[in-house]
Amino acid sequence: MNFLRTRLIGSVTLALLLPYGPLLAEEYGADTPVDPTAVQLQPMEQNGISYLQGGIGLDESTALQQTTGYNLHISLSSGPENQYLSGASLVLQSASGQALLSLEDVGPLVYVKLPAGSYRVVASYDGVQTEQRVSITGKAVATANLHWR
User: Fold this and answer.
1) In the chain, how many domains are there?
2) Model pTM?
3) What is the extent of the structural domain holding 28?
4) What is the pLDDT of residue 127?
C-alpha cells in the first residue's frame, strides 16, 4: 500500500511540475548542481547490459540527464504536451528479435549501454504498444522517444 501511495504522490508531483518544464529548464540547465541526497539512481544490469532508469522529479531527471557513458537514451511521454510518463513495460530487442533487456514499471527515462548494432525498443503502457528502431554507431548517443497519445 505504501508503494502505491508513494507512486501516486510521485505521479501527482510530476503532473504538477510538467507544465513548468520549459521554465524550470531555463533555471536548471545541464550545469545545475543536483542535490545527491534527493537522487537514488542505481546502475543496474540484466543479461550483461548496464542501464539506469528513473527521472521522476527535477533532481532525478537532471541527474540522469547529466549522466555519461550510456549510448542509448529512451524517453517515455504521453499526450499533446509530451508529458513524461512512468509505469511502462519496456523490451529491448536485437536486430534478430532476441529480447536483451526486459523491464517493468519504468520511466520516464531509461539510459542503456550497448555495443554497436541495430536494436528495436518496444514499450507498452495501459495496453497500448509503441516501438522504435535505433542504431548504435559508437559515435553519438542514440535516442528513442516513445510516445502515447
Assistant:
1) 1
2) 0.75
3) 2-148
4) 95
